[in-house]
Amino acid sequence: MSQDPVITTNHLKKRYKGSAEEALKGISMTIRQGEFYGILGPNAAGKSTLIAILCGIIPYSAGEATLFGWNINQPTNWLKGRLGLVPQEIALYPSLTVFENILFYGHMHGLEGKNLKSKAEQCIRTFFLEEHRNKILTKCSGGIKRRVNLIAGIIHEPSLVLLDEPTLGVDTQLRTMIFTYLKTLNSSGTTILYTTHYMDEAEQLCSRVSILDHGRIITEGSPAELIAASPGCHNLGQLFLNLTGTELRD
Amino acid sequence: MKRYFAILKKEFLQVFRDLPGLILLFLMPAAMLIIITITQENQIIGTDSGMKILVVNSDSAALGNTIENELITNDHFTCQVFGSEMEAERAVNEGKFQILLTVPQNSTETLQKLAQQHASDTAINRAADMGKLSGVSILYDPAVMKIYTEMMVASLQMIIESTAIKVYLETYMEALGVSVSRQMEASRKELAMTDFSKEMPDFPGKQQVIASIRSGIMSQTQKPLHINLPGNYSGAERLVTVSVDAAGERDRLRGLNLVNNNVPAFILFAMFFIVVPLAGSIINEKLLGTRDRMMTLPVTRLAFFSGKITVFLAVCLIQFILMIAIGLYLLPLVSHLPALSLDVNIPALIAIAVASSLAAVGFGLLIGTVTSTFGQAAPLGSVLVVILAVLGGIFVPNYMMPDAIRTISIISPLHWGTDAFFSIFARGAGMNNVWPQFLSLLIFFGISLIIAVFAFTKRK
């Protein structure tokens, strides 16, 4: 597996218009090819802001951020083609069917013809959506929507997948299925950036994690290393609370 | 009851916390009320008609000058004097003015000669008179609806005829006075020579009585003659012929009836109503998160909008075809109205339909990108369409509006579209006549699209 950096940020900052406080206060990190990198943090830590900046949805205010060596403030189609986003919200078209949504996003990613159709069919099978393929999305359960949301971000087999809390509101069976899929994806060489509130997910899936709080990275490393380095902590959840405290966030 | 108040409070908070939406909800109908009422003022109260009249006074004498002065000082319409009849007719045909009134050269002289002849003739031969009458011509813009043209022509005919009667009577009285005075002088002389003494018996003081009678006759016949005719004399016969015709090339003119006025007007109104679904579709993209997702995809912003543009362009063109079909087939079936005539310049008609459709799509994109919620887009978009339609002359013809509103109306893309359609349907116009409106509609689309593309992907 190559050690080339896929994502690098250097003192990355973000202040939203009209906001007194910075959402990101100087994030510096490097994610290498093939890593399964987790970003943990309480609410309003800056996780979704970081994902949005890395995808090119919002610009950063200061510092630097690159994807595959390219400055993300000038995203090109080449760069976008290597990236897959699975957002927190269900960003799909409610009046289209499951299959139509998948085909649409496949087309947008540059797939077409038989290639698109075969990939779409493969995704349908992988995520057990055969009997739901022709259902209008509004008539589907939250679990089905989550699966389609995931497919829309990975159908084009990107080199880098950014997932923002992909298991939100999902039952245990579906979570397990998603984990299995993501591990398989990662083992084939896809770099994954994963944000979550669920510590057990991060422990299970991630090769490295960073914990974000108030816009800063407060610690970074493999889950095992971090737990070992924190006396009295037996899991990532305990470590997380030790580092971030029990104070409620916005 | 407590639950009711809890629900009430919830609804109240939801509505009143969308402040922009709330402002639009009150502001837009208020604006609509003001604009519609002002534009209707002329029709209801009849003050200061927006209709513009041109006068070409080649007569420059009593008849022409009086008519000109009467029109200029009349509060019911706007009148301008033009020197060249050809330029004036062109201005009317282009819709800049609605009526052209021409008083030809020597009209006053012709009328005065007629009056003098009548004053001296013992019997008036009306049939012989017809060839000797002055002729005033009225030309109207064929794009003005027949009902308005007839109203204006009737008003102008009254002014022309009353002025002609005045000039005629003044000349007639003068001529009659001279003629009667001559006759009275002759009678006086004859009376002076009459020997009254032979007619009367003898009686004391006979000669003094005869002298008194003679003196009385002389003094009466020497008094100036004043002939008063009834003040409301209207004349049983015409003194001036008034010809009424449409301005422009005769073989191209079509005129406007209710059908070929309303069908194109409501085509535009219908097209621009796509603002509601189109703006809604764009707001939906923002709310669902698909807009943000699209920004991560290798798709240009223009490509993203092109799908919406194509679909809604098709919707507009279907509306165009549907409205034409209604004018052709349904309206004659359900009313006594004639069918819409498509004996017009078809390439120009299609070009304006396409350009208007694109302008409507641009408008929808603009509203969708500048608003954040359905609560803002719906009142802004729909009421703005109605206001632009009013300004465009769809409900009240443009030429019936007060000057101030007519000036504002040039910003309305619906005005450009209806103006072009009316030119095509009424004046037989082609692309060489309607290209300014065509270009304006396309430019409006272009500018709207540029603003929409940048506003849609504006990053926080």
Structural features, described:
- The complex is a heterodimer of chains A (250) and B (460).
- By secondary structure, chain A is α/β, with parallel strands linked by helices.
- Chain A contains nine helices and ten strands.
- Chain A has a domain at 1-82 and 161-166 and 191-250: Rossmann fold.
- Chain A has helices at residues 47-55, 77-81, 98-108, 113-126, 142-154, 172-187, 199-205, 223-228, 236-244; strands at residues 5-14, 24-32, 36-40, 62-67, 70-71, 83-86, 160-164, 191-196, 208-213, 216-221.
- In chain A, the strands form two sheets. Chain A has a six-stranded mixed sheet with strand order 6-7-8-3-9-10, sandwiched between helices.
- In chain A, α3 packs across α4 and α3 (98-108) runs parallel beside α5 (142-154).
- Chain A starts with a strand and ends in a 6-residue tail after the last helix.
- The mean pLDDT of chain A is 90.
- Chain B has two domains: 52-188 and 198-246, no CATH class; 258-456, no CATH class.
- Helices cover 66% and strands 6% of the residues of chain B.
- Chain B contains 17 helices and five strands.
- A five-stranded mixed sheet of chain B has the order 2-1-3-4-5, sandwiched between helices.
- The longest helix of chain B is centred in the middle third of the chain and has 48 residues, at 146-193.
- The radius of gyration of chain B is 35 Å and the shape is elongated.
- Chain A binds chain B through residues 16-17, 52, 55-59, 77-78, 80-81, 83, 85, 87, 89-94, 105, 108-110, 152, and chain B through 288-290, 292-299, 459-460.
